[in-house]
Amino acid sequence: MKLQNLLISNIRNIDEVSISCDRGIHFIYGSNGQGKTTILESIYVLSNLRSFRDHDLRPLLKAGQTTSQIKGDFKIAESTRAELKVELIQAHHRFEKRAYINQKLSRSAIEYFGLKLNHSPIQFHAINLNPSSTDLIRGDPGTRRTYLNQAISSESPEYLDILKHYQKSLDQKNALLKQEGAIDGELLKILNENIALSGAKLIFFRLMFLKKINQTFVSFLREIAPNQTLVFAGYKTGETLYFTGHFDFPTLQNLVENLHQKLTEKGPVERYRKASVVGPHRDDLVFKVGTKVGPMLPDLVGVGSQGEIRSVLLALKLAELEEFEKASGVKPVLLIDDFSSELDSTRRSFLLRYLKDSDLQIFVTSTDDLSQSLESSGTLIRMNQGRIC
Length: 389
Hints:
The protein has helices spanning 36-48, 109-118, 135-138, 141-155, 157-177, 185-224, 252-265, 267-273, 300-303, 306-328, 345-357; strands at 3-11, 14-20, 25-29, 67-77, 80-91, 94-101, 104-105, 126-129, 231-237, 240-243, 284-289, 333-336, 362-366, 379-384, 387-388. It has 2 domains: 3-125 and 330-388, P-loop containing nucleotide triphosphate hydrolases (Rossmann fold, 3-Layer(aba) Sandwich); 139-303, RecF/RecN/SMC, N-terminal domain (Glutathione S-transferase Yfyf (Class Pi), Chain A, domain 2, Up-down Bundle), CATH 1.20.1050. The protein contains 11 helices and 15 strands. It is of the alpha/beta class. Strand 14 (379-384) and strand 15 form a beta hairpin. The strands form 3 sheets. Strands 2-1-4-5-6-7 form a 6-stranded antiparallel sheet, with helices on one face. A 6-stranded mixed sheet has the order 8-12-13-3-14-15, with helices on both faces. It is globular, with a radius of gyration of 22 Å.
């Protein structure tokens, strides 16, 4: 599914921009602060109902405006068109996000994703890659949990539904723990049972996702940096560390029982801290460096160079892209922000070969016109002060 036309109104520093999109690569270039990344961000919001720059969508609304719009038109067949649209509205003190598929308002993100990928002619998904950003590797565990949540929910609305129910139970439990005086033990027991079940399902989905991308991740990493020491991806839940591709896959029942046991063991600690300390909201995606898998291997962040960390980031995102296509049958749109910023010649050459050989619709931003250096034809878009020139 290819994006045919993109309309952006009142998003960040863009008043209104309309872009006719084609197959292949779109080169978006211009000086910093001209609106290049905003175009990629708008495509990402249209696909994922969230930004890759901010947790909150409020900053996207252009200063002084109360409404903004991102609309994508798609060609389904020679005589058939379809449309996705996201509106951001600030009314008094209330901020609202509205998402439409063919002019029909979606009641929730779960419905939007489900319809967009499984129950409508529009099968559209965008994946963002920022080669210069290593926050996913170097950042806090919350950043990596968010990555897993976004990557998995994009191909599985069921995961997003489970995550919603887990978060609701977790919020209720934390509110209960913060109450003064005696805690309702029966209610706490019910909430822990809900958390154990929905939390185990989240962990199961995350382990399954990492297991599916492992071989592709390793293959990409070897191609990108053949001389780099092996890197193993692992999932850490509590004191348990699962190395992707190197463990007996646990059953869902095992995960429920283990999580329930930990909730029981940590009950006194949670009451003392007045907060939940057990569950997938505390888990982490870790990267270990070494020649043989094992829990005592050093973390990539501690021993890896900036280039090695970028190689892992690149391999992970490309593995995510290929897994999405395998799972959904849909070729995603690839968004590459700030392409030439900090990739060395080896990693840049690999990515160029990958782009040329792929049949993806790609949007690339840079301060320079990359069409000559890439030796590739494509659509040129020059941005200046929020306008195409």
